[in-house]
Each structure stands twice: as structure tokens, then as C-alpha cells.
DNA sequence: GAGCACTGC
């Protein structure tokens, strides 16, 4: 066989060196397609050769060959995400062995855009030899794709059907320092799997600060630590400045700093990090006013300043504004304009804005925290970590040397900030994760080798919930129902109610409700059109509960598909509705796979009642009981005082309500609320509502349920179930 | 009478 037509002739899997690889790269024939290279290939290759990681190809190949697990550190701009998987491809030669290389990313856009870039570099069409796989979109070809970029969640899903991950020769976990839930679980699974599958190689790619931790964690088979492969980055230096004294009001200090930069610093755009939508919009308004004042006072010295907000719920078209050029000087030769982007954490990892020279970092972000005692996840404004502060500062040095102004003292940075942001696994409700782990075949969840083990109470809460939902038996084993639930990309409560819904002849409707609950809020409320938006919402409100309203909104949306402006005219979020439709279709396919009937109850008298009963089957642990006269509820068992969220559409305050979420904002609220009947609680969740056990604390809710039970003993069950008089007091009385 | 940090299946 001629060497020129078989560029990989003589290559032995996992025994190649950089010299051979370079020869193949520089050749005229594409070794993976056997076709001549396209015109642009050589040009792209020249660019790749300038990446820091390229010059270390041989060192990498040696490390990769000699070790089953490698920890790799590559700073921003090193080229690791695009190049390392290609180096692995040349060493692994997965296409000759019917295998694939997986490279995981925490975000969908990253998986897509990196795959596109690498397909170009390898001179193959995207979706053939190089592809990507994300929810709702599989851009791979069976038997052809050997390099697959994918979201970490997607690989975790695959592990549930194939715990050996037998299709893969090498798995690369990229951005491991972000410590997403899925990446953390994958690290645990892959560590165990590596001991079982000696042919499987693993590369964990991360930022510097975490490397030693990962090295220690991945020391297996008698090794003390996994080897470290390090590549320098390619960024510009950033000067960091601290305040002399702590700032009592970080928003005010941030605004002041932005204006100071605008007045006194050389041209270059500014990035300011704040914590949320409201804070950002507020700061934008204030900066605009002050900047205008400044221009008025010093028209010859201060140029125009454009202020651009950035957060995830902003429509994509508005997010695009961050790429607009800074404003032109107002007069020819006048002082130059400048742009300031005011952003949440989204600009820390997900979005890169070129041309940023100044970063203003007040040192806070909203972070998820989980309180297992009351089973509540909430968002809290908290100090960021050192790693996060470094990441923020780095945003100033992507195109030229920059400056970062930290609105806290150097001493606070050194002494008060944590090294790393707490990994998500320590800040989340783990019910879903535990179900996934069990499905993958992990037996002992307490002894599972976590990189960071969650609090025992968090595990307890998750196991308890799954047991009450009958996903786990009393010995902690996955039940057939639990195995089915795990296959749905949903929280266990939602999966449970979807699976049981045919018993209430309402699976079509529950399917819709579950899909609507899986997407962001569909109701839009522009600040200047609140009245109109509220009126539009009132038109679609079903008085019996917010879940029923969601069903109604979806159905109306489907009936008005012909009208492109329908969503906007009715103050609904078109994107969210489309997404709900996508989710619904995916879940429907899942149901069909398990032969779960898709049925609708045609009896109008029990239509809504049956839906509410099905809701109880999943959410019986999220029920509250009205106490006293006012809008005051006590959650069952946990006895948390909560109020109906102002967005709630109920026209009365029913005695018993079921809620989708507990939110802790200005005060504790329950959101997305539907009226239920106490008889249903006793009937459909008898274990949870076992009034004889001590685990059910004494109190008003228990007394109320006891009296229901006493009454029920007098009557037949059938009688109580059809007794659908709507209790409750009128909610909206004269103010 | 309030909100949605950010992801992901």
C-alpha cells in the first residue's frame, strides 16, 4: 500500500509520535476520508501550529500513551478544546476499531461551535467524522463519527443505557473545573469504570487551581496521583487594583468606578459584573444619566458612553447588542466613545466579548443554595471565589493588556474568598441525580466515590423522596417504576405523575403540563405594559389552579399556530412555548417507548378534577394548608409559613393547595399552585399521609387531615371523590 | 403584589 494514499499506514494505535502525526497532517491526502485536502485546510493548519498546545504534541502523546488517566491543565487560549481531541484521534485511531472519542462540554453552544470548528480543521463535513450530540439534536452518523463533542448531561444519559460506555475508546471531560453536577457524576463513574475497562482512557481537562485535587482523586491502580500535562495559555497581562477600604454599597461603587474609567482611562470597553436582572437594569439607568451629565459638563473631554445590559432571559437579538461597536465621537475629532456591558455571570464563562479592556468586579454573584432541612433550593447573593475573580479579571486581557478593578480589599481577597466556588453537587437537591446513579447501577450511594461527597442529609432527603414516590423500595433498590422514571429527562415528581396519568385518563394533559413546567416562565410582563399583560393572562386563567392555566395556554397556543403574532399579542414568550412543544414531543416518544397510553378524558365534569388527582400522585409532598384568614399557608410536615406568590391565578384561597416550587425571595412564597382535596392526599399517598406515625408532626394540618379521615370513614370513598364543592374563601376582597 | 445566577437531560 502506498504511503501517500494511506497517510496512517504503519500507525499502531496508542503508539504514535508527533513526527508521524505531523507528516500525516502536512500531507495532501486526508487520512480519514482518503480525499485530497481542500484549499482552506493548509491555511487553517498554519493557524493551529501557532497554538501553544501544538508545540507540545509529542509530550502529550507520550503521556497519553503511558497512562490510562491524564489530568490536563490548559489556560485560556491554549487550544486544548480543539486540539487535544484531534491528537487523541491520531493516537487512538478509533475509526479503525469501531470506537469513538467523546469530549464533553458543560454547555450546548460550546459543544456545537467547537465541533464545527474541529470539523473544519479536520477538513470533514460536520456530522460525519466529527459531530456533536446535544438534547434535541444529534449531529453524528453511526459508524462514521469517531470524534463526538457532547454536553456532559448527554454522556450521563448514555451511561444510563450503557454503563460501560462501550462505544468509546477515550472520554475527555473538558471544563471539569466548572464542576457541573453531570461532570462530577461522570468523574465518579469513569474512575470506577477505568478499573473495570483497562482499554478505556480518560482525560480530565481543567483550570490550574483544581489540577492537584483531580490528580489525587484520579490516582488509581496503585498510582498515588494521575500525571499532569500542562499547557500555557495565550492571553495578555491584566493589572489588578483593589479598593483601600471595603465598599458598603457595591452597586454605587461599581457605577462610580465605571464613570471614573470612562473619564480618566484610555479607550477600551468595560465589563461590569452584577448579580441579576433588576440590579443590572437599575445600574444601566443610573450610568446613562450620570454619563450624560458628565458629557454635558465636559463636552471636550468625555465621549459618549453606551450602556448594554446582559443576562440570560434577555431575547437573543438584545443579547447580540454586546457585539455592537462602541459609539462614534459626537463630533469629528472629539473624545472617543466607549461601551460598557453590565452582565451577570453569563459573561464569566458562557459568553466572550472581544475588545474588553476594563473589568469592574464587585465580587458577588447569585448562587444556588440548597437547604435539605426544608428541601428548598434558593438563590442567594454571595461572595464569589478566588477562581471566579481570576476568571473575571481574565476577561480584560483577551485582545490586549487590560485592567481589573476589584471593589474589595486585597486582604479580603486573600483571607475571605474561598479558593473555588462550591461544586454544584454540594448546593443542589439530588433527587434526580440519585435516581440517575441508581439507574447506572451504583448500589451504595453513600460509599460512591464522589470528588466531593454531598451532605448525608441531602442524600437522605433524596432517598426519602424517591422512596415515597415508589421509585425505590424500602431496601433502597430501584423499582421497575423507578427505572422507568429515570429514563425521563424530568424531576422525579414530574416523571411519576406523567407515568401514572393514564390511570386518570389525562396523560395527554399531564404531558402538556409537565412540558410547560420544564421551560422558563411563558408569561411576559413588560414594565410599561403591566396592566395589558395582566389582562391578557387573566383571559387565559383557569380558576382551579395555575397548572390548569398552563395547560390552557398551551392548547390556545396550538390552536392559534396560524397566527405568527399570537404569542406576542397575548404577552407570551414565543421561545418558551416552542421549547415546551419540543420537550413535549421528546417526552411523548419516551412514553410510547414504554407503551404508556396517551389518553384524554372526554367527561367534562371530571376533566380538571382528574388532572388535579394526577398532580397529587407526583407532588403530594409539596402541599400546603391554609391557616387563619389571610394569605397564609403552612407546608405539610415541614411547617414552613408561606404565601401564595403574587403571580398565582387562584381566585380563592383554597384550604389545601399543591405547589410546584417554593421560592425564597422577599419572603417565602409557593409558586404555580393548584387546589387539591385532602381526601386525595389520603387516598393517593397513604404512606406519606400516614397519620399514625410520629414522623408526621402534630399540628394544624394533621388535625385537619384527621377530621377528614374521620368523616371519610363514615362515607364511602366514591362519595367523597365526587364531592367537588370548591372550598375556600374569596381571595380578592376590596382593598 | 413579585421576578429569572447559570447550565443540562
Proportion in helices = 25-40%
Number of strands: 23
Structural class: alpha/beta
Strand content: 15-25%
Largest β sheet strand count, sense and barrel closure? 8 strands, mixed
Uncertain runs with pLDDT below 50, 5 residues or more?
717-728
- Specify the number of helices: 27
Biggest sheet strand order reads 4-3-5-2-6-7-1-8
Shape: globular
CATH superfamily of the largest domain: P-loop containing nucleotide triphosphate hydrolases
Number of domains: 3
InterPro entries: AAA+_ATPase (IPR003593), DEAD-box_helicase_OB_fold (IPR011709), DEAD/DEAH_box_helicase_dom (IPR011545), DHX15_DEXHc (IPR044756), DNA/RNA_helicase_DEAH_CS (IPR002464), HA2_WH (IPR048333), Helicase-assoc_dom (IPR007502), Helicase_ATP-bd (IPR014001)
Catalytic activity: ATP + H2O = ADP + phosphate + H(+)
GO biological process, one term: spliceosomal complex disassembly
Keywords: ATP-binding, Helicase, Hydrolase, mRNA processing, mRNA splicing, Nucleotide-binding
Describe the structure.
This protein starts with 17 loop residues before the first helix and ends in a 5-residue tail after the last strand. With 735 residues, it is α/β, with parallel strands linked by helices. Helix content is 39%, strand content 17%. The chain is built from 27 helices and 23 strands. The strands form 5 sheets. The chain has an 8-stranded mixed sheet with strand order 4-3-5-2-6-7-1-8, sandwiched between helices. It has a 6-stranded parallel sheet with strand order 9-16-13-10-12-11, with helices on both faces. Strands 17-18-19-22-21 form a 5-stranded mixed beta barrel. The chain folds into 3 domains: 3-231, Rossmann fold (3-Layer(aba) Sandwich); 238-425, P-loop containing nucleotide triphosphate hydrolases (Rossmann fold), CATH 3.40.50.300; 620-722, no CATH class. The protein binds one DNA strand of 9 nucleotides through residues 106-108, 134-135, 151-154, 156-157, 178, 180-182, 275-278, 311-313, 344-346, 348-350, 365-368, 379-381, 424, 432, 436, 488-490, 520-521, 525, 586, 645-647, 663, 665-666, 669, 671. Residues 254-441 form the Helicase C-terminal domain. Residues 713-735 are annotated as: Disordered. This is RNA helicase.
Amino acid at each position: 500500500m502506498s504511503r501517500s494514499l494511506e497517510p496512517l499506514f504503519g500507525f499502531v494505535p496508542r503508539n504514535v509520535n508527533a513526527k508521524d502525526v505531523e507528516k500525516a497532517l502536512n500531507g495532501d491526502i486526508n487520512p480519514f476520508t482518503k480525499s485530497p485536502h481542500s484549499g482552506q485546510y493548509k491555511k487553517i493548519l498554519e493557524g493551529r501550529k501557532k497554538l501553544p498546545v501544538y508545540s507540545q504534541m509529542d509530550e502529550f502523546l507520550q503521556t497519553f500513551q503511558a497512562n490510562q488517566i491524564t489530568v490536563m491543565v490548559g489556560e485560556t487560549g491554549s487550544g486544548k478544546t480543539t486540539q487535544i481531541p484531534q491528537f487523541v484521534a491520531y493516537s487512538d485511531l478509533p475509526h479503525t476499531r469501531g470506537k469513538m472519542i467523546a469530549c464533553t462540554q458543560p454547555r450546548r453552544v460550546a459543544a456545537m461551535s467547537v465541533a464545527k470548528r474541529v470539523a473544519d480543521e479536520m477538513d470533514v463535513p460536520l456530522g460525519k467524522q466529527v459531530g456533536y450530540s446535544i438534547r434535541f439534536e444529534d449531529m453524528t452518523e453511526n459508524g462514521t463519527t469517531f470524534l463526538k463533542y457532547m454536553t456532559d448531561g448527554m454522556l450521563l444519559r448514555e451511561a444510563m443505557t450503557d454503563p460501560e460506555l462501550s462505544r468509546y475508546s477515550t472520554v475527555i471531560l473538558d471544563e471539569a473545573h466548572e464542576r457541573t453536577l453531570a461532570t462530577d457524576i461522570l468523574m465518579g463513574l469513569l474512575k470506577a469504570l477505568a478499573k473495570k475497562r483497562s482499554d478505556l482512557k480518560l482525560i480530565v481537562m481543567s483550570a490550574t487551581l483544581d489540577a492537584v485535587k483531580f490528580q489525587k482523586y484520579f490516582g488509581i491502580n496503585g498510582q498515588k496521583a494521575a500525571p499532569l500535562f500542562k499547557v500555557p495559555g495565550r492571553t495578555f497581562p491584566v493589572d489588578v487594583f483593589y479598593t483601600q477600604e471595603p465598599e458598603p454599597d457595591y452597586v454605587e461603587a461599581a457605577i462610580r468606578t465605571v464613570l471614573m474609567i470612562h473619564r480618566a482611562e484610555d479607550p477600551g470597553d468595560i465589563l461590569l459584573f452584577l448579580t441579576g436582572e433588576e440590579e443590572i437594569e437599575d445600574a444601566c439607568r443610573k450610568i446613562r444619566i450620570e454619563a450624560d451629565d458628565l458629557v454635558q459638563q465636559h463636552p471636550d473631554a468625555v465621549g459618549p458612553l453606551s450602556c448594554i445590559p446582559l443576562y440570560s432571559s434577555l431575547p437573543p437579538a438584545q443579547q447580540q447588542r454586546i457585539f455592537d461597536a462602541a459609539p462614534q465621537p459626537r463630533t469629528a475629532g472629539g473624545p472617543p466613545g466607549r461601551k460598557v456591558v453590565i452582565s451577570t455571570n453569563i459573561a464569566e464563562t458562557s459568553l466572550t466579548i472581544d475588545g474588553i479592556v476594563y473589568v469592574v468586579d464587585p465580587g458577588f454573584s447569585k448562587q444556588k443554595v440548597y437547604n435539605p432541612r426544608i428541601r428548598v433550593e434558593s438563590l442567594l447573593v454571595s461572595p464569589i471565589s478566588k477562581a471566579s475573580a481570576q476568571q473575571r479579571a481574565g476577561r480584560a486581557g483577551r485582545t490586549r493588556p487590560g485592567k481589573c478593578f476589584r471593589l474589595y480589599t486585597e486582604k479580603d481577597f486573600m483571607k475571605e474568598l474561598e479558593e473555588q466556588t462550591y461544586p454544584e453537587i454540594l448546593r443542589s437537591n439530588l433527587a434526580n441525580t440519585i435516581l440517575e446513579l441508581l439507574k447506572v447501577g451504583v448500589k451504595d450511594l453513600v460509599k460512591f466515590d464522589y470528588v466531593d461527597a454531598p451532605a448525608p442529609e441531602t442524600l437522605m432527603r433524596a432517598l426519602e423522596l424517591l422512596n415515597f414516590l415508589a421509585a425505590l423500595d424500602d431496601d433502597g433498590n430501584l423499582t421497575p417504576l423507578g427505572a422507568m422514571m429515570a429514563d425521563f429527562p424530568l424531576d422525579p415528581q414530574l416523571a411519576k405523575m406523567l407515568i401514572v396519568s393514564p390511570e386518570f385518563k389525562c396523560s395527554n394533559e399531564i404531558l402538556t403540563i409537565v412540558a410547560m413546567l420544564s421551560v422558563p416562565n411563558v408569561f411576559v410582563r413588560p414594565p410599561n405594559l403591566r396592566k395589558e399583560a395582566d389582562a391578557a393572562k387573566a383571559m387565559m386563567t383557569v380558576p382551579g389552579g395555575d397548572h390548569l392555566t398552563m395547560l390552557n395556554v398551551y392548547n390556545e397556543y396550538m390552536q392559534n399556530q396560524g397566527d405568527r403574532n399570537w404569542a406576542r399579542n397575548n404577552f407570551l414568550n414565543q421561545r418558551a412555548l416552542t421549547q415546551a412543544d419540543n420537550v413535549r414531543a421528546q417526552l411523548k416518544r419516551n412514553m410510547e417507548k414504554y407503551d404508556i397510553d396517551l389518553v384524554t378524558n372526554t367527561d367534562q365534569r371530571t376533566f380538571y378534577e382528574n388532572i388535579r388527582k394526577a398532580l397529587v400522585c407526583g407532588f403530594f409532598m409539596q402541599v400546603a394548608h391554609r391557616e387563619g384568614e389571610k394569605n397564609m399557608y403552612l407546608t405539610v410536615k415541614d411547617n414552613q409559613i408561606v404565601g401564595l406568590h403574587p403571580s398565582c391565578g387562584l381566585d380563592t384561597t383554597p384550604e389545601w393547595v399543591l405547589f410546584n416550587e417554593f421560592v425564597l425571595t422577599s419572603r417565602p412564597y409557593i409558586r404555580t399552585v393548584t387546589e387539591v382535596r385532602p381526601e386525595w392526599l389520603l387516598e393517593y399517598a397513604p404512606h406519606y399521609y400516614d397519620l399514625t406515625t410520629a414522623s408526621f408532626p402534630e399540628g394544624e394540618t394533621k388535625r385537619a387531615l384527621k377530621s377528614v379521615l374521620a368523616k371519610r370513614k363514615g362515607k364511602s370513598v366514591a362519595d367523597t371523590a365526587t364531592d367537588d364543592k370548591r372550598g375556600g374563601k374569596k381571595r380578592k376582597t376590596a382593598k
